[in-house]
Design brief:
Structural class: alpha+beta
Number of helices: 11
Shape: rod-shaped
Strand order of the largest sheet: 3-4-5-6
Number of strands: 9
Number of domains: 2
Largest sheet: 4 strands, antiparallel
Order of helices and strands: HEHEHHHHEEEEEEEHHHHH
Helix content: 55-70%
Distance between the termini: 22 Å
Radius of gyration: 37 Å
C-alpha cells in the first residue's frame, strides 16, 4: 500500500474518531436536556467513494429512538392527561360540597328539620319561631352557595378550556415552523424539538403522527388534519345553543368543522363542562325545588299564630337552587309561620311536626332528601376515587414507556464516558499512525536524496 494511501486512511481514522468524540461530548453536555436523543456517528456515512472523506454533518449522526414506543407513549400520555384533569376537577367538586364540617348542606338540612321539631313542642314561642326562620334562611343560603359555586366552576372550566386551546394553537404554530426548517435541513436538534412539541401536544388531545419521506410530518386528530404541507389549523372554543341550554365544542376555526375531542386534558374539560357539572347542578336543583314545594304545600294548609291561613314558607315557583329563599314576610314577622293545622289553636304544633317529618318521606325519586343527597355525595366520591385510581395506574404505564424510550434514546453518563475513552484511544492510535507514516515518508525522502 502506498504512503499516500496510508495517509488518506489515517486522516480518515482521525476524522472518524474526532466525529465520534464530538458526538459523545455532545451527549454528555445534553444529559439533562429535555427531549434530547443521544447521537452516534454513522461511520458508513463518513466513508466516501473511492477512499474519499466526507465532512461531518447531520446525516452522519444517528439519533437513537424507537418510534413504536414513542407512538404508544403519545397515546398513553393522552389518557393520563384526561385522568389527571378529571381527578383535579372532581376534587374541586368534592370541595364545593365539603361535608367535613358543620357548614355543609346535610348539616343545614338537619338543623332545619330539627327547628320544626322544636317548634312543634312549643309553637307559641317567638324565640323558637325565629330559630325556624334563621335555620331556613341558612338552608336557602347553602343551596344558593352550592349553586353559585358549581356554576363558577363551570365558568372556570370554560376559561381553562380556552387557555388549553390557545396553548395547542401555539404548539401547532411552533410545529409548523420547525417542520419547515427540518425540510430544509433536518438537524438532530430540530428533530428533537419537534418530538418534544408533539409529546407536549399529546397531553392535551389525541394526536396521530404520519412520517413523510422528506422528514416532514402530518399531525391529525380523530381524522381531522391539524398540520400538513405548511398548513396549520387553528382551534377555537365554540358555544352551541339548544333552547335555553348551551354547550361547548372545539372547532377548526378556518374550516368551521367541529373536532371530536374525547381524550386528553381537553376531553376531560369538555366532559366536565358539558356533562358532569350540569348533572350535579340538576340534582341540586331537584333537591331545592322538592324541599320548597313540599314544605310550602304543608305550610299553606295550616294557620299562623294569629289564626290566619298561612302563606308559602319559601318563595314559590323557583326554577333552580339559586332562587331558593324564605318568604320575605316571614323574615320580618315569625308569627306568620304556620305551626297549627287548625285556626285559633296557637298551642297546636301538629303542622310543625308534619313539616319536620318530611325529612323521612320519599319525596324525591322514591327517596327522602337525605338519602338522595347521600347518593349524590357517594357518586361524587366514587368518581373522584375512580379518577385517582385511573391516574395512578396510568402513571405506571407512562413511566414504563418513558423508561423504555430512555433506555434507547436517553443518555447514560457511564456509557458515554466509556465510549469517550474508547474513541480517544482510537484517536491517539490514528495520531500515532500519522506520525509513523510521516517518519516513513521522511526516511524515503532521505534515501532519495
Amino acid at each position: 500500500m502506498s504512503i499516500s494511501r496510508l495517509m488518506r486512511l489515517s486522516n480518515q481514522a482521525l476524522l472518524n474518531s474526532r466525529a465520534a468524540i464530538d458526538a459523545t461530548a455532545n451527549n454528555i453536555a445534553n444529559v439533562n436536556t429535555d427531549g434530547y436523543k443521544r447521537r452516534r456517528t454513522d461511520t458508513l456515512q463518513l466513508l466516501g467513494l473511492n477512499g474519499g472523506i466526507n465532512t461531518l454533518d447531520s446525516d452522519t449522526l444517528l439519533r437513537y429512538r424507537n418510534q413504536f414506543v414513542e407512538t404508544m407513549l403519545y397515546r398513553e400520555q393522552t389518557n393520563l392527561g384526561k385522568y389527571q384533569t378529571t381527578k383535579s376537577l372532581g376534587e374541586n367538586i368534592e370541595t364545593i360540597f365539603g361535608e367535613g364540617d358543620d357548614s355543609g348542606l346535610q348539616s343545614a338540612l338537619t338543623n332545619f328539620w330539627n327547628s320544626w321539631q322544636e317548634l312543634s313542642n312549643d309553637p307559641e314561642s317567638m324565640t323558637t319561631r325565629n330559630t325556624v326562620v334563621d335555620k331556613a334562611a341558612a338552608l336557602s343560603s347553602t343551596f344558593r352557595k352550592l349553586y353559585d359555586d358549581l356554576n363558577n366552576l363551570k365558568s372556570e372550566t370554560k376559561t381553562e378550556l380556552q387557555s388549553k386551546t390557545d396553548q395547542i394553537n401555539t404548539i401547532l404554530n411552533q410545529l409548523q415552523k420547525v417542520n419547515r426548517q427540518i425540510e430544509g435541513n433536518a438537524t438532530g436538534d430540530l428533530l428533537d424539538q419537534r418530538d418534544l412539541l408533539i409529546n407536549e401536544l399529546s397531553g392535551f388531545m389525541d394526536v396521530q403522527i404520519k412520517q413523510l419521506s422528506g422528514n416532514g410530518v402530518i399531525v391529525s386528530s380523530n381524522g381531522q388534519i391539524l398540520l400538513a404541507d405548511g398548513h396549520v389549523s387553528t382551534l377555537e372554543v365554540a358555544e352551541t345553543r339548544s333552547g335555553d341550554s348551551s354547550s361547548l365544542e372545539i372547532r377548526l376555526k378556518n374550516e368551521g368543522r367541529a373536532l371530536n375531542v374525547n381524550s386528553g386534558e381537553l376531553g376531560a374539560l369538555l366532559e366536565t363542562h358539558k356533562q358532569v357539572i350540569p348533572e350535579y347542578i340538576d340534582r341540586l336543583n331537584s333537591m331545592a325545588m322538592a324541599v320548597t314545594e313540599q314544605v310550602n304545600k304543608v305550610h299553606c294548609s295550616g294557620y299562623d299564630l294569629n289564626g290566619k291561613k298561612a302563606a308559602a314558607f319559601f318563595e314559590a315557583s323557583i326554577t333552580n337552587a339559586g332562587e331558593m329563599r324564605v318568604n320575605s314576610d316571614l323574615l320580618g314577622d315569625a308569627s306568620l309561620i304556620a305551626a297549627s293545622r287548625n285556626a285559633n289553636e296557637p298551642g297546636n304544633g301538629v303542622l310543625a311536626l308534619r313539616i319536620s317529618d318530611l325529612q323521612f318521606e320519599s319525596i324525591l325519586n322514591g327517596r327522602n332528601i337525605s338519602e338522595f343527597y347521600h347518593t349524590l355525595l357517594n357518586r361524587i366520591g366514587n368518581q373522584v376515587e375512580e379518577a385517582r385510581a385511573q391516574e395512578s395506574s396510568q402513571e405506571l404505564i407512562v413511566n414504563n414507556l418513558k423508561n423504555q424510550r430512555d433506555s434507547i434514546s436517553g443518555v447514560s453518563l457511564d456509557e458515554e464516558m466509556t465510549k469517550l475513552i474508547e474513541f480517544e484511544t482510537a484517536y491517539q492510535a490514528a495520531s500515532r499512525l500519522v506520525q509513523t507514516i510521516d517518519e516513513m515518508a521522511q526516511s524515503v525522502l532521505n534515501m532519495v536524496s
